[in-house]
Amino acid sequence: MSSVLQPATEDQDPPVARTYRPVSSHLAIAPPVSVVIPAMNEAENLPYVFKTLPDWIHEVVLVDGNSTDDTVEVARELWPGVKVVGQRGKGKGDALRSGFEACTGDIIVMVDADGSADGNEIVSYVSALVSGADFAKGSRFANGGGTDDMTFIRMLGNRVLCAAVNRKFGARYTDLCYGYNAFWRHCLDKIDLDCTGFEVETLMNIRVVKAGLKVQEIPSHEYLRIHGTSNLRAVRDGLRVLRVILGERSNRRALRRRPHPSPLLGTGRGKVS
Predict the structure, then answer these.
(1) Distance (Å, rounded) from C-alpha 243 to C-alpha 203?
(2) Got the DSSP string for 195-247?
(3) Which of 35, 96, 148, 247 measures 20 to 30 Å from 82, CA to CA?
(4) Under a CB-based contact definition with an 8 Å cutoff, are residues 185 and 105 in contact?
(5) What is the distance between the alpha carbons of residues 134 and 130, in angstroms, rounded to a whole number?
(6) Tell me, what DSSP letter sits at residue 70?
(7) Whole-prediction pTM value?
(8) Nearest-CA neighbor of 92 among 72, 106, 76, 112?
(9) How many angstroms separate the CA atoms of 201 and 114, rounded?
């Protein structure tokens, strides 16, 4: 189903017709949405991931990290139009950068391939973006969010690192190291991503704040990985995140001089509602 925007009055010049995609009973959008899924040996998990993806999305971009199982074949069977991109380097950050380059949509959504993310939540991210946000940041610790897959050590580390980012960069994040996010494509021009590992989410969260982009947190529930084991290593990757935080220069003074935008979405300093 689709509809097109009609001119409001007869004396106005007719606008260019735009195809709208029904997203829910109360929302239809024109911007095409691309979903990027970095995957390495996730053939067993992909059926669960693709099952929850909404049918109104514009494209799915699967970044294959040189899988030795049937990841690519399974993806093509589940989503015949999937765009498969071979990863050039190593690491999640490198995979996401490859996927972003291949996207043709105006909105980009990041989804993990382990089955921990619910694709049905994408509508909440897209709703925030079309309502005025630049960056929709998933949070497991915002009201309505949750997690089934975080040890005490990882939760403690996330809180400490999140507090460090909030203090140093003037953000108000409730979650830092979470990979379920969405943003307008134009944001990539302002948040140059120059890392290769799991620290990529932290780098994005810091640089959207430094760029003065409007951020809105989206409550999200993280489920357990369904099959296989994660490549995440709490201590190793936590230290990489810490190095990113310490290496990024704060520009809070410059951000404080920016005019205050709509209170619905916080401020250009990266506050979240």
Answers:
(1) 10
(2) --STTHHHHHHHHHHHTT--EEEEE-EEPPP-SS-----HHHHHHHHHHHHHH
(3) 148
(4) yes
(5) 9
(6) S
(7) 0.83
(8) 112
(9) 17
Whole-angstrom Cα distance, residue 135 to residue 215? Answer: 5
Looking at residue 115, its amino acid is G
Angle at 26 between CA 13 and CA 136, to 5 degrees: 95
Number of neighbours of residue 260 by Cβ within 10 angstroms:
10
Token look-up 């074949």 returns: 73
Task: Say if residues 58 and 19 touch (Cβ distance below 8 Å).
Answer: no
3-state secondary structure of 164: helix
Tokens of 63: 């970044």
Long-range contacts of 258-266 (CB under 8 A, 24+ apart): 258/212, 261/214, 262/132, 262/214, 264/131, 264/132, 265/132, 265/133, 265/214, 265/215, 265/216, 266/172, 266/214, 266/215, 266/216
Residue-level pLDDT, tens digit, the chain, 273 residues = 333 333 334 444 444 456 788 888 778 888 999 999 999 999 999 999 999 999 999 999 999 999 999 999 999 999 999 999 999 888 899 999 999 999 999 999 999 999 999 999 999 999 999 999 999 999 999 999 999 977 888 888 889 999 999 999 999 999 998 999 999 999 999 998 888 888 899 999 999 999 999 999 999 999 988 886 656 555 566 688 888 898 888 765 545 544 444 334 443 434 443
What's the pLDDT at 130? 94
Q: What's the distance, CA 207 to chain centroid? A: 14
